[in-house]
Amino acid sequence: MELGPTGEETASWRETLADGRWPAFALIMLGIWLMAADALVTSTIMPSVGRDLDGYAWFGWATSGYLVGVVAASSCAGWLSDRIGLRPAMIGSGLLLATGCAISALGADMPVFVAGRMVQGIGAGWVAGFCYVTINLVFDARYLARVFAAATAIWGVATFVGPLVGGLFADAGNWRGVFWLFGAQAILFALAAGWLIPASKGKPGEGGLPLLQIALIVIGVSALSSAGVVESGMVQILLVPVSLFLLAAAVILDRRARARLLPRNAARFGTLIGAAYATYFLLLAGEVGFAIYAPAILQFTIGLSATEAGYVVAAEAFAWTVAALAVSGSGPVWRRRWIVIGAACIPSALLLLSAVLTSGLLVLIVAGGALLGSGFGLSYSFISRTVMASLDEDERATGSAGIGAVRDAGAATGAAIAGIVANLTGFASGLTVESVALAGFWVCAIGVPIACLGLLAAIRLTKIARKFA
């Protein structure tokens, strides 16, 4: 056991897994693996999908469509787990994820492929949301630093393994096999949930399902994603402000709704949870363009295979994992410092990558990806821990599931914005020297101001957290 500077206890790994907690821990890690790997492998195979299905214009949609499903599902994960119980909820989410994988594997054109991605997103969103609910139910506050460090490490490993697996399948000319592989793992998750999670009765709870807020978020992100696909410039100009208005409306309405999507103070930037959610949203929105477009750009500019491009992108994952594990035992003072340091790394990395992504200078590209991953590794688990520890008992399920909803809404929004920017450079019409050079700059550069706002939110978060220390 370790003591932070204020005397707060951080449990050891042995204590964290003791007293029958290891089965829940194992299932949580499997669920997070499914979410992370399924989401991230797609960026590696998308150049192959784009060639086979004539879908370069749909690169952003393939990610944002998936994340739209994730947001819709994770937004109501807490509500659903309360009503039907965790075991049937987890089993159903695994089976739905497997169904989405099958649709994508069988897709003959991009609309069907994207539809499969959306179904996968719903299944994966529920998997992740239920995992966060399980964390809150099983692990006390002093275990959270270790649990979230492990979860962050799983994300890092998945980011490393996912592109590599995707690259191997893509290089073999069988990108569809990736989805059959992950469909099988989703079925394994459903079986494990039935074995490891004890049966429990659902409870009526208070309030209903926040359908209006969920619908506004889904329509808003879908409209933003569509702006990158439509050819009419006038329609694009209209869709962007309309989509942003719908996202803002969802947040404003949620603050006043009886059936809330997020905790009551989540929309107030001056509160701890509001600043934390803003940090999640903005940092993920700024980062995601690199993950989506880097593999295709590296294959075109340097002539890398899908597997080799996956290795380059994996620098982000490796750095994320190393950084998360290195600081997992930090005390309260350093947790706050790491949040700010990590958040500062992200716009710095995006600025570097915007300058070098199409340069062919692999060392600098790897360094930029590593700095990007380090930023999330240093900060992510401590932001999650801060949110969890601040929640009241009656908001623990909603607030913990809200972590995934806000994070993925940010990533979906960022993917849509990156898609618009990339397609405006001519990327949608096919890869040329000019379009790739412009896309390589702008998909990273557009994230710099967004991530800078995330840094300001992280600073605000730590100032508020210091008052409660």
TrEMBL record:
It is found in: Membrane. GO terms for molecular function: transmembrane transporter activity. The chain crosses the membrane at residues 24-46, 58-80, 89-108, 114-135, 147-166, 178-197, 209-227, 233-253, 274-297, 309-327, 339-357, 363-383, 404-424, 436-459. InterPro entries: MFS (IPR011701), MFS_dom (IPR020846), MFS_trans_sf (IPR036259). Residues 24-463 form the Major facilitator superfamily (MFS) profile domain. GO terms for cellular component: plasma membrane. Gene3D superfamilies: MFS general substrate transporter like domains (1.20.1250.20). The keyword Transmembrane helix applies. It is a multi-pass membrane protein. Keywords: Membrane, Transmembrane, Transmembrane helix. SUPFAM superfamilies: MFS general substrate transporter. The keyword Membrane applies. Its main location: membrane. This is MFS transporter.
